[in-house]
Specification:
Elements: H1 2-17, H2 26-29, H3 32-40, H4 48-51, H5 62-79, H6 87-113, H7 117-128, H8 131-134, H9 142-162, H10 169-185, H11 189-193, H12 200-206, H13 208-233, H14 239-244, H15 249-257, H16 260-266, H17 273-283, H18 285-293, H19 307-319, H20 333-338, H21 347-367, H22 372-386, E1 393-399, E2 419-426, H23 430-440, E3 450-455, H24 462-466, E4 475-483, H25 494-497, H26 499-508, E5 512-519
Parallel strand pairs: 1-2, 1-3
Antiparallel strand pairs: 3-5, 4-5
């Protein structure tokens, strides 16, 4: 039964891995977007994390995760003489790679971390049944990579502690590599291994050579990471310049995030956000099980009596010190905490678990901003099919969506005359958006060269699509494309519209639409 259930959950994970939902802009702009322009000459834009005077994102962990597979695709297409791979192939290849990393490394690590053979299969199935495993772990997040690194860091610590006399130098080398990659990937990584790592102190005290090997390998990998980052950000720098003035991205990241004024730009949250809201959003019924078990005082709940719970809870407490708190920051906690509990005792609880993960899986894995990727991939064909003789430049305005990944546009075909310029309006007020459109729309004597991409639930646009002549300025929206599997959860306005009306609008009119924008001209 366990094997069949696991195989079914594996197929579900494949389905969500290949579903083009869009959970957060970072999954594109802190990964594939960085290398798409360099490798394929696709349109791309580096965010401030990579362009500031003190960059805070490291290239070292991104190279094997994204640049290597993208370079292999480019090499393959060059060898067969077909130019460059289409962006949709690159996109789904990276998603498939994240699925394989999750399937192999995460499940394997959880299997090793659970000491009881009787509970291992049930634990692996439980983690595999979480919507977080289906969605977040199959997206190109630094948090997804952090989850794998934390899990394997705990595996290596456990192996070294249990094999006190026979731990090889290879174990210390791998643990050092995981630690360095983890820190350069996300500065939150040490929070997960800080207290579990204290188990190594007695071992290092007995065998100082082990500590020396761990530190030596750590210094080696840290030097490689710093040289890699400095060479990326200063491509003309000599080796001597790199030694004299290195770029240490984790240090820059730490300095940036310890300044509350910087975090305020990204949004401030109460200190209890992680414990009260974010863990509940990620764990659902499992979170309730853990909370209710706390009322067994003075007994310590069984799920808290292991190093996995220590890692998750101590990290959550440390990350709660920072006022900017997002659920994805706690992704490594999900498999660790799920491996500590049992849900088999209650059929009702199992049913609630299944319903919760199915609902959250489809919400986050299919519908959440789900139209952005398909629309961007189709944008060139939409433009070419709309304009018989396109001008030299086409402007596409995106409103009330996440930032569209530019690299998904791919290269301009050799037979195309129009180049696409993407304008990310984010969530600016509607009147300001119309003003931007009005300044870009050409006169009546010229063909349409302006397009608008916005959620179908944006009722502000209805008058311009239904009765444009009554509006000022006289702009007309002509619907061209609609992708139905798109929900804009940032458009929820319960305060003004009420709960029922808001849900009817956002869910009933779900979808992402593309309009051609033109002036209403007298005949």
């Amino acid at each position: 039964m366990w094997r069949r259930t696991y195989l079914l959950l594996l197929l579900i994970r494949v389905y969500f891995a290949l579903s083009p939902s869009y959970l957060h802009p970072d999954e594109n702009f802190q990964g594939p977007e960085v290398f798409a322009g360099r490798i394929f000459s696709y349109p791309s834009s580096l965010t401030w994390e990579f362009t500031s005077d003190h960059p805070i994102r490291s290239i070292f962990p991104l190279w094997p995760t994204y640049e290597l597979p993208m370079s292999l695709l480019q090499w393959f297409y060059t060898e067969i003489g077909t130019g460059k791979p289409p962006p949709q192939l690159v996109y789904y290849a990276l998603r498939a790679g994240m699925f394989l990393l999750s399937f192999v490394l995460e499940d394997w690590a959880i299997y090793e971390l659970v000491p009881s053979p009787r509970h291992r299969r049930a634990t692996v199935v439980l983690v595999a049944s979480s919507y977080v495993t289906w969605t977040y772990q199959t997206h190109t997040f630094s948090n997804s990579l952090e989850t794998l690194l934390v899990a394997w860091g705990l595996v290596l610590i456990r192996r070294i502690v249990e094999n006190k006399q026979h731990s090889s130098i290879f174990s210390y080398a791998v643990l050092s590599f995981i630690s360095v990659v983890g820190v350069f990937n996300r500065i939150t990584f040490p929070a997960f291994l800080l207290f579990p790592g204290l188990q190594l102190l007695p071992h290092f005290r007995r065998k100082p050579s082990s500590l020396a090997a761990f530190l030596a390998f750590g210094l080696l990998f840290t030097s490689i990471a710093i040289i890699t980052d400095t060479a990326f950000y200063r491509p003309t720098a000599s080796f001597l310049d790199i030694i004299r003035s290195p770029i240490v991205t984790p240090l820059n990241n730490l300095l940036y995030n310890t300044d509350s004024s910087n975090l305020a730009v990204h949004g401030l949250h109460p200190r209890h956000q992680h414990f009260v809201a974010n863990l509940f959003q990620l764990l659902g019924p499992a979170y309730i099980v853990m909370i209710t078990s706390l009322f067994t005082w003075p007994l310590v709940p069984s799920w808290m009596r292991n190093v996995r719970a220590l890692s998750a809870l101590s990290a959550t407490a440390l990350l709660s010190l920072f006022p900017h708190q997002e659920p994805r920051f706690l992704l490594p906690c999900v498999p660790l905490l799920l491996s500590c509990i049992r849900l088999r005792r209650s059929r009702l609880l199992l049913a609630v678990w299944v319903v919760f993960n199915a609902a959250m899986g489809f919400l986050m894995g299919v519908y959440h901003q789900g139209g952005i990727v398909p629309t961007q991939l189709a944008m060139r064909s939409i433009v070419e099919n709309t304009i018989a003789a396109p001008p030299s430049g086409v402007d596409v305005f995106w409103w009330k969506t996440y930032s569209p990944p530019l690299w998904l546009l791919g290269n301009k075909p050799s037979n195309a005359s129009a180049d696409i310029t993407t304008h990310d309006l984010m969530g600016i007020p509607g009147l300001e958006m119309i003003t931007r459109l009005n300044s870009a729309v050409p006169t009546c004597s010229k063909p349409t060269s302006v397009f608008l991409v916005a959620p179908a639930s944006a009722t502000f646009l209805d008058p311009y699509a239904i009765s444009p002549a009554l509006r000022s300025p006289n702009l007309e929206l002509l619907p061209l494309w609609l992708y139905r599997k798109h929900l804009n959860l940032d458009d929820l306005d319960f305060g003004d519209d009420g709960i029922v009306t808001t849900l009817q609008r956002v869910i009933g009119r779900r979808g992402l639409r593309v309009w051609a924008v033109r002036r209403v001209c007298s005949r």
